[in-house]
Give the backbone structure.
Amino acid sequence: MVTSKSIKKLISNYSNGKYSHAFLVETNNLDKCLSDIKEFIKVLNCPHVFSENCNKSCNLCKLIDLNNLPSIIIVRPDGMSIKKNQLLEVQEKFSTKPVYSKFNVYIICNAELMNDSSANSILKFLEEPEDNIIGFYLTENKEQILSTIKSRCEIIKAIYEEDNVINEELIKIANNYLQSILKNEELIINKEYLLPLSLTRAQIEQIFKIIFNYYLDFNKGKYFPGNILNENILLSELTVKKQIVIIEKVLSMIKFNVNIELLLDYFIIEMRKASD
Ligand SMILES: [Zn+2]
């Protein structure tokens, strides 16, 4: 279900025949925004009358959901930037008319991470738009978007309410997870506990934020009931400081297209090293 009002409006404008070929979407939640944009792409391409149930009954919508339709390309940063060759690849794949759906659509996540040369390689799409190609540039940081891109896109805002209420369940998971790490359990905690819970990237990020706050409070000597670090007075000051740096690093990496399993294993290994 589309939750952003402005993306809802975009959808109704498209069905009225008013449309742009490139959008700069400013958002505060990339995951939610991407999922709304995907709904929009389904509406555009669905060969049936689109409905919320399309995911189950309609092949095309199902493929869009699974990121498996060749005419929809999602570009995520490769490391800390969006590389020129990633965009050249999009150009090449979209040099022919769409075969699988009505539109060829590319979505660039964290578009602020494009540099001049990667932006130049996509400029053709923006300067000589073709009817059957639509581009979305998603960003949480509009100020850092190159002006060559900004000036050629329709700019829309998709702002979501922050999930202020941290889910009780996530707190419980964060506590269990941290407890096991403090007990020096092996990597198995990821495989046997965290991963089977099938959490989203955003939920895992939330768990790390909870753990991060525990560490910050503990480091400042603040006592809050429920902070399980309070029960681990054996943690040395140095260990706490080192572990804060590790958690911070994980929180910054989780935003990029890193493999979650590898990231979690990295986390456990580094946390253990820091406590030796
Ligand atoms: Zn459909």
Q: What stands out?
A: The first strand starts at residue 22 and ends at 27.
